Amino acid sequence: MPRGGAHFSSEELAQVISRYDIGVIHQVSPLSAGNRRAPKMVIVSERGKFLLKRRPRGKDDLYRVAFAHSVQTHLAAKGFPVASLVATSDEKNTVLQLDNHIYELFRFIAGVRYDGSAEATIDTGRQLANFHRYLADFASEWKPLRATFHDSSIVRRRLKAIGANSPSAGSPDRKLRKTAEALMELCNSSSVRVNELGFDSWPEQVVHGDWHPGNMLFADGKVTAVLDFDSVRIAPTVTDLANGMLQFSIVGNRPNPADWPDYLDQAKLVQFLNGYREVIKLDKNELDSLLDLMIETMIAEAVLPIAATGFFGHLSGVDFLKMIQRKAEWLNKNRDKLTKAIEG
């Protein structure tokens, strides 16, 4: 159990497990992975190996969970690599509500984490395209969230708040205000360009909303499981694609974001896109929107938690925002070179 993270009490665990028909329990152990506010347990029983998860507050809206489950069930029926949900023994429901909490039980899937190889990167793009293809005409009785980071008034309000709450212009840390202003300018410019390409006319459907390496397991360079469906929503598919291209090409891997380089990994960016395009073809306007959407999603992902807490995870919000500015400006400055690579 991670220090400071949420966990299951013994009584709670016994009550939850009793709702499932999985036979005699042989072993139960905590799994330290993902959101620390969402405790997870690996359960080994006479009927197999399972993963039990309690939804964290803020991710426990019944209708959104039910919608996510309907998406997962649909994908599983199509043969998409997703962990199978286990229904309760009494109500035959994959969503268990108990004492103001929501629980989910999955069949456990073995695999390794993303290794950065070209084969794995291409397959993640390919599987995102399959995700979109399988859900192109999906309909559910549950009401989905309709939202996107593009042209977001919430992002703009958070940027203004960061600028307003930063130290005065005469203080040593006045650069934070300058960073917020620079990010606002980048966000606005990218939003305008994407709108001019016809974003509002592009069809919407179910998208994943959080396609990144930490939400996948691999074996032999192929995706064996997509793990997290907490962010599924309705939006144009290019928002998912741009976010995936960003997540698989961003270069960090040092403790302090101030030490992260400006550049993104162009090879991985193109590999991911090429994997996607093996399955789904994109028109020129969609291709031309990707770099600006990458800038927008990078800013949005950083600004929302930093405006609320001052941190990005455990990282300094100030250093993280300055790093985001450098990477966004790198994308902007290398637009011509990257566009040629994207267009192949």
Description:
The strands form four sheets. The protein has a five-stranded antiparallel sheet with strand order 1-2-3-5-4, with no helix packed on it. Strands 6-9 form a two-stranded antiparallel ribbon. Strands 7-8 form a two-stranded antiparallel ribbon. The chain has two domains: 10-107, Phosphorylase Kinase, domain 1 (2-Layer Sandwich); 118-343, Alpha-Beta Complex (Aminoglycoside 3'-phosphotransferase, Chain: A, domain 2), CATH 3.90.1200. The relative contact order is 0.12. The chain has ten helices and eleven strands. With 344 residues, it is of the alpha+beta class.
- The whole-number mean of residue pLDDT values reads 92
Fraction of helical residues = 40-55%
Helix and strand string, N-terminal first?
Answer: HEEEHEEHHHEEEEHHHEEHH
How many structural units, i.e. domains? 2
Radius of gyration: 21 Å
CATH domain fold name of the largest domain: Aminoglycoside 3'-phosphotransferase, Chain: A, domain 2
Shape field: globular
Which spans have pLDDT < 50 for at least 5 consecutive residues? Answer: 168-172
* Secondary-structure arrangement, i.e. CATH architecture of the largest domain: Alpha-Beta Complex
Estimated structural class: alpha+beta
* Range of strand content: 5-15%
CATH level-4 homologous superfamily of the largest domain? Aminoglycoside phosphotransferase (APH), C-terminal lobe
Largest sheet: 5 strands, antiparallel
